[in-house]
Design goal:
- There is one protein chain.
- By secondary structure, the protein is of the alpha/beta class.
- About 35% of the residues lie in helices and about 15% in strands.
- Strands 4-5-3-2-6-7 form a 6-stranded parallel β-sheet. A 6-stranded parallel β-sheet has the order 10-9-8-14-15-16, with helices on both faces.
- The chain is globular and about 70 Å long.
- Its cofactor is Mg(2+).
- It is an enzyme of class 2 (transferase).
- Its EC number is 2.7.2.3.
Amino acid sequence: MLRNSHLKPKAYVHDAGELDAFPHIQTLKGFPKEELFAKVVMVRFDSAILLQKELDLKSQVTSAVSTIKYLFEAGAKIILLSDWSMKINSKLLVVESVADFLSSVLQLKVAPSRCISNRSLSKMEELEKADILLLENLSEFKGELANCSKFAEQLASVVYIFVNDSFSNSHKILASTVGVPRFCSACVAGFHFEESLCQLKMAAQINKKPCIAIIGGGNLFDKASAVRYLASRCDGLVFVGMMAFQIMHALGLHVPLNLLEGGALKEASNIVQLAQNRKIPILYPKDFWCTTNDFPKQMEIFPAYGILDGWIPVDPGPKALDEINSLLADCKKIIWIGPVKFRLASQNIYGASKLVSMLDRLTQSNCEITVIGNMACKGVMKESSFVSVYNMVENASVVWEFLKGRKLPGLMALDRAYPVEIDWNAAYTHPSQPLVVDIGSGNGLFLLAMAKRREDLNFLGLEINEKVCLLPFSVFFLLCMS
């Protein structure tokens, strides 16, 4: 347990201040390779990456494959674990077909196992016959989504080291990402997880000015705290999706009722007020390309305040794109999160491709550009001539949750590994102050009282009895944050 009167707070929801939700985690790269030999290692992999119909050589595929191969070369006994569906690959339904597919991807023999549902054969017995074992589809078990403790314990039986390489699930509370680590001696991040975490850190870091956030998609009510964070840090906001209409409504502009989101007006008004207080621009499309349900191929341009009944916006208009281009001209950092998309998709929309063209030009003037979200990333990969210079994070859900100031459960579960490494400069505001160590600190309340009296000292509590400190430690940690 750590205590310092100036200990940096790590609140669950930020108030438009600095995000500080990155714990010090152990990584496979930093874990002693010799400690892996003959150990049973469970890898929670991302099926959306390794089970794609057409695997390419993108870095995330390479890093995900490297995690498993590295463990195999280190002499570990590997248990692979994931969920999959027909959306990922319609040919991969049963565990046997997935094992065959992974064998071809990894160039290693992967043996299927049904030991979750059929307990007649233990994982240890099966590992004697194969170095890599694939367990059944997690989506078939209710205990996965419920983070059932008994189910997690069953998954983790015989497992010594847990490796999480499914960053796209880090914002969810699952048995395979949050429950299993409780029963393992070491819990570390795989190569893909670590790479994705670095990309997230780059996305959240506003280290260059001016910085503009381009915000697409909808559902402002749910994402309001994340948008407020961007409004509190960036030098301008550009809305290119359904959220634009909620902002227009908050600004007092006429918006067709069918384009408004229930309950979002108050949140949109708060965002507008914050931007006005900081004197930063909020840009929304001044015109739109629109179509109708009856004649989807017929396109007309309407001003934002004059969209006729029956017409539906599908793309920013030419004036809107010119305004965006002008605002971005002198930027040194751009965060693009969410798709340039409104209610109807159409093959005739060009907003995303024109936006990529703008960003391509900015990359030539050393502008740092982060693109977040599957659709936005696909647009860049399809249209850009300079893909390699973009920082791309395909899973927008994780980033939205992080920007809200919420700690990512899958990330927090990795903050317990052996050998333990602690960044004392991050733990204490003044690490050079004298350190007081309380061995056998119990629930930490005595140590907390001492720390409140002596702000000139740093305090460290050590307690071996997990039953004594587990729940009280949570209370103690919250007290430290207050």
